[in-house]
What does this fold into?
Amino acid sequence: MVAKIIVEGLTISYEGQPAVRNLALAVEEREILSIIGPSNSGKTSFLKTLNRMNDFLPGFKMEGRIALDNRDIYRELDVLLLRKRIGMVFALPLPLPLSIFDNVAYGPRLHGTKNAAALNAIVERCLKASYLWEEVKDRLTTPAFCLSGGQQQRLCISRTLAVEPEVILYDEPCSGLDPISTAKVEEAMRELKEKYTQILVTNNTKQAARVADRTAFFLMGELVEIGTTSELFTRPKDQRTDDYIAGRFG
Amino acid sequence: MGNPKIIQKIVFFLLAAATVAIIIPVALIFIIILVNGLPALTPEFLFAAPRSGMKAGGIFPALVGTIYLTLGTMLFSLPLGVLAAVYLTEYAKESWLTRVIEVAIVNLAGVPSIVYGLFGLGAFVMFLNLGASILAGSLTLAIMTLPVIITASREALTAVPKSFREVSYSLGASRWQTVWKVVLPNAVPGIITGTILGLSRAAGETAPILFTAAAFYLPKLPQSVFDQVMALPYHIYVLSTQVPNVPVKIQYGTILVLVMLVFIMNITAAVLRARFRKRKLW
Amino acid sequence: MQKRYFEKLVEAAVFLSGLTAVLFVILIFVFLFRESAVFFSRVNIFAVLGGRNWYPLSEPPQFGFLPLLLGSLWVTFGAVVVALPFGLAAAIYISEVAPARLKDILKTGIELLAAIPSIVLGFIGIVVLAPWLKNLFNLPCGLMALTGSILLGFMAMPTIVSIIEDSIASVPRSYKEGALALGATHWQTIRRVILPAALPGIIAAVMLGIGRVIGETMAVLMVTGNAAIIPTSILQPVRTLTATVAAEMGEVVRGSLHYYALFGIGLVLFVITFVINLVADLVLHRKRV
It folds into this structure.
């Protein structure tokens, strides 16, 4: 079986400064892959290249090959469809200045869904999938900004799910959240494993240990090591991995 | 060398005096206009046409003409100005071209109003053969108002948080979809207030319409966009320099109506701005 | 894909809209040039630009620009002499000295001035300012260059005040705090630290004020007396470039030399204000960097 995402020889640079060097890895279908490492290791740069959000940054240059289902995302796939297939949850909750319903319905409406019944069904399904439905089902028309931080982030997950992606990218999604909200987000991620491939960038190694099937360790723009989470955390092959996880630097 | 504290007191007093010297005449002007013009504001004045060679009657055709010209100006300058601002904030990358456009906008804003009048005459009245008309006048005023609308729209568009755009793009939206569905709707308040302010200026302008639209006296209201039109600013000019012995009441009455029109627009814009700021959802 | 096609169409429309500002500047220049070229090709340019007599209706007509140019410059210079001290003082007072609530009232007052249409100010000039000056100087008539200068100086005030205000406000606070910490009084700090730092903005304000005044038409037409002579004193009536076009275009025969001469004046006005605005913009932009 071909891996969901295959990365080969990836080098990313901004205005000539390299952020990621000669990266190669594969992401398996329906796994949760977490990427850990200290700041400025290139984790977020890598993530944002996967859904081509980096295209918006002036001076961004990329070399190498990234394939989704064996099609090159730069040369063979349409970028708008790519972003529909690979969704993203950002570090800060970013609701749009709309109602809860309209936030989730934004994506489907973008791609042509107009039927009210269909939209209702989508919104309900996605809010349930991120464990937010029970808390908001009576106030779907109220502004999304009235929700708490944790609720907003789960709303953002619902919003991402509404366009029916195949892969979900998380860029330090729980960094601003309290432990209870974090737990709810992690629980949602576990449930979503059934249908989606997920890549989680996190500064919190314990979160990676809780949630991820496999973990990759990035350091200064390079992939140092990748393996099943339990192996990486208990018997890392590289000394640097061991040092980072043990907290000797970071 | 005197005591610095005393020098400061004297200087600050002079500064305050100079400021007051500017403000007092402004207040006086308003009082003069109000006191002299208010007695003229009867329904007959507002809704009747001038009679006896402008020495009696009302200003209705001029009021209507100004309204037509202002609407025409909005029709041409608003969509163009907003799209131009969208280009500069959402599509264009920083380059020599954007700088040239910015310089052009500053220069359009600084062109003397009579030069706009000449341009309107040469380009719209003569070259495009529109004749002196509401159409020619509106087009001329629209180009004059364009820089104001572009600048206000740019400000409004830039004030929309970048994160909204990021979210939209990450869901697979195209650039225009993002602009249309997320950015523009949230910039509309700022665009509206800027437009109203720009139009209030256009309503008070005389020189651009001197040869492109305004007529001294028309027996009938305009029937089409190719007709000439009377207008408040031009009417004031006529009443104060071209017609002898016009009753002072009529002169001030006309001025008061124009000033009130301009101020209603300005206050509307200010009120809208305050209300939108309160209702902002982010 | 249809969506792609639509996107490209929108992009083109938006791009063209962005270019319209440049397009219109070029068009205005082209039209003015086209019409005035007819005039300049039929006369001796130097005789015109340096000509001392503007008698367009005489036989043969004389089209000397000099009295009009000098009229504009005379009135403008006077306006700056009026506007700069008061405007600078007001800007300093409003941004540095006035207490907060007063500041808002004053700013509103000046913005109100900016909102008054120039035709209205011209009227006030005729009925209030001119008679007052006539009595003050004991002259037969109050319509002269001085009246124009005072009125236009007054009208330029909002432009000058707001730009200098912005300029003062963008002087880094650390400059001011540093001076105060060394024991300088507020005024000493303003005079020695803030104003020099705000100088580019002050220069730009003067330039934009000049641009505004040179381009003013109706108010000047109504109060400066409209005599196309070379002024020797500020108490004489003059004719500005703008007033000439406004006053004579209405009665001119379309296609006559006089008609094209007025376009020639328009071209001169356009070039003058273009240069002023360009330089002022450069000064303002350099300062921000």
Remarks:
- Chain C is about 80% helix and 0% strand.
- Chain C touches chain B through 82 residues (CB under 8 Å).
- Residues 2-42 of chain C form the longest helix (41 residues).
- The longest strand of chain C covers residues 54-55.
